[in-house]
């Protein structure tokens, strides 16, 4: 089931922290500002049946992660670990 992403801020907001940590010329900042907005969930809507199944991870987020995984030449498990520990990857998503 394709559901809208809720962007509720938490006590430790990654976006706010990363704004000061990720330099303007970083690949990840440029990816977030230029490439990520081009990939939207509505482009994948035809692949999901409305009202069925569990809420999905936003397909736009998965597409961005796949592009970055390919760029970094990472295996699936390596990308999984990088997503949980690499602040630049968290900034993109």
Q: Which tags fit this structure?
A:
93 residues; mainly alpha; globular
Q: How does this model look, in words?
A:
- The chain has five helices and no strands.
- It has 93 residues and is mainly alpha-helical.
- The longest helix has 14 residues, at 59-72.
The N- to C-terminal Cα distance equals 20 Å
The overall pLDDT average reads 86
How many β-strands, per DSSP? 0
State the order of secondary-structure elements, H for helix, E for strand.
Answer: HHHHH
Query: Which structural class fits the helix and strand makeup?
Result: mainly alpha
Shape label: globular
Strand content: under 5%
* Largest sheet, strands/sense/barrel: none
How are the secondary structure elements laid out?
Elements: H1 14-21, H2 27-35, H3 59-72, H4 76-85, H5 87-92
Question: In brief, what are we looking at here?
Answer:
The protein is mainly alpha-helical and 93 residues long. The protein has one domain (14-48, 58-92). It has helices spanning 14-21, 27-35, 59-72, 76-85, 87-92.
């Amino acid at each position: 089931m394709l559901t809208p992403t809720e962007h509720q801020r938490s006590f430790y907001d990654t976006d706010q922290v990363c704004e000061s940590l990720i330099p303007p010329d970083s690949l990840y900042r440029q990816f977030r500002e230029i490439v990520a907005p081009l990939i939207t969930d509505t482009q994948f809507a035809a692949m999901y049946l409305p009202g069925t199944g569990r809420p999905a991870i936003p397909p736009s987020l998965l597409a961005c992660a796949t592009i970055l995984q390919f760029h970094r030449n990472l295996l699936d498990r390596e990308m999984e670990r990088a997503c949980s520990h690499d602040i630049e990857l968290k900034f993109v998503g």
